Each structure stands twice: as structure tokens, then as C-alpha cells.
Amino acid sequence: MSALRYLRVHMAKCGTVAPDLPLQLEELVVLNVPEQHLQSVQRMPNLRKLTLNWSGDELDEAFFYLPRCCRGDTWNWSGDEMDEPFFHLPPHHRGLQWLQVLLRPVSTVLSLATAHAATLQELRILCASEGDTPWHFKDLAEELGRCGLVALRRVVLLRGPAPGFPDKKLPHGKESCRRQKHAVWDSLVAADSKAVRVVTVLCGECDKCPPFPTLGNFTWQDK
User: Fold this and answer.
1) Quick one: DSSP state of residue 90?
2) What topology is assigned to 6-12+22-56+90-203 in CATH?
3) Which of the four pLDDT bands, split at 50, 70 and 90, describes residue 148?
4) Residue 70, burial from CB neighbour count under 10 angstroms (0-12, 13-18, 19+)
5) pTM listed for this prediction
6) Tens-place pLDDT, residues 39-97
7) Distance CA 106, CA 128 (A)
8) Where are the domains of the chain?
9) 19 by DSSP, 3-state: which?
10) How many CB atoms within 10 Å of residue 31?
């Protein structure tokens, strides 16, 4: 198992405890996410791409905030960082760059994005653009602007499939989608004091989006 780098896990709905995951992974895909695997993610120093797809329950998990980078294997302290702990990123490591999350609550998604803010380039979130379902994260734009996503290049708002919906599609309308995308873009740009990055905000239903990289593929796609 020490040579394993890419792993896809589909958890069965049973009462057994989820097995530990190899911590050397560079990519992880988990379907039916158990809480134990969320905790394992925080201990993976080489993780570059992560997909968390569905869970029967809300998974409210707080992730470590790492001011200098998103991962590493050495714990250090710095007086210049307001006495907050952080990890040093080894030179050959690139940090988490792709994150795709289809989970609730949104606080877990935001915490995970914030923890990897220094290196995260693409963020995909399952969410509705309207309605009163738990999947409509009304403060999503404002909260994303607070995550410090300095490396972010693309946000994709996914509209389905989603658990608990007969047609597997989340509430979504053309006008509400346009407003949501604009609000997210505006919040991210306003949060960037340097204003030199170009961030694209897309809807997985309305827009032509580059596919999420396949397992083991770490090539950035603009189109």
C-alpha cells in the first residue's frame, strides 16, 4: 500500500467503522463519505486532488487553517503569523489544487477550502441557485470571499445529481443562476486586494465547463 497514490473509495451503507486511508495519497475520491475519512484528509501531506461525493448525514467538520500553505509534514510555529500554527510545504509539493465537494453543511466545504486557500486552483460545489432547500447556500458568495483563496482560478457551481431529490436536480433557474455566479465572482474579486488574478465562475448546468480531471490526471484545462 505504500506505493498507492490514487484511490477511489465507494463506501457501502453499513454499520462498520470505515477503514483508515493511506496518508501518502495524491488523489482521493470518496463516495458516501464517512466522518472518519474527512478526518483522514487532514493528515495527507501529498494530497493534490480531492472529491467528496455525498453522505447520508450532514458532516460538520472543521479543518486546520494553514496560513502559509495547505499541507505538509512538519509542524512549526511563527511569531509573525499571530502565533498560529502552520505547516511548511516541501519544495516538491504543490498543495491541494482541485477540490470537488458534494456535501452539506456548507461550513464544512468552506472550512476545507480555507484550509487549502494558498494552493487551491479549482473549487466545485454542489448547490442550488434558488429555493428553500438545505442545498441553497444563501451566503455562499460572501463566505467564499472570506476564505482567502489567493490561488483560485475557477469555481464551478454544480446543480446535481443530489441525494433526496426525485429528479436528482437541485432548484435552479436561469436568472437566479446568473445572480449567484455574479455574486460569487464579485465577492472573490473584492477580496483580492491585488486584483491581478482572473477567476472564472461557471454553472455546471448552464455553462460549458472543462471536465474535472480523471483519476491520476493533474493537467490544468482551460477549456
Assistant:
1) P
2) pyruvate-formate lyase- activating enzyme (3.80.30)
3) very high
4) buried
5) 0.82
6) 788 888 899 999 998 765 666 556 554 444 433 333 332 333 333 333 344 444 568 99
7) 12
8) 6-12+22-56+90-203
9) coil
10) 15
